[in-house]
Amino acid sequence: MQAAAPAVPTSFRSDPELRQIFADSALVPDGWFAWTEGGRRFNCFVEVDLHHEGLREWRSKVLRYLEYAESGLHQDRFGFTAFRVCVVAKTPKRLASLRQIAEAAGRLFLFGEASAVTAQQFFNAVWLAARGTAQVRLVEG
Questions:
Q1: Does the reported pTM lie above 0.85?
Q2: CA distance to 60, 67, 127, per residue, from 117 (Å)
């Protein structure tokens, strides 16, 4: 059996760039990047939760991402029809709270604990869906 081609990053947008792209919106992701893997193109937004925002603000952010996903603007802004949101949290307790709030969003969000989501492991099975206990890769979740 042949091993899958590794993930190859192709594009990145930082917080300042995203603030310009989303100037007309209350949604401002922390980062965005795209990559290819196994001959397919993928992309995701990154949210780094430092526990500065309350859970009410997180619930509002989930709703803003859902609205954005349904708006069709992602195709115009980034050239992809769909996206994921990868959320990195500092503690298991905070991670569990964020996951619970995002359950209604289905497969849109993936969650990882900061100690496990490193540059070397980002594309590996370190992510959790909003429901379930199995860790998944970005392209599987």
A1: yes
A2: 24, 27, 8
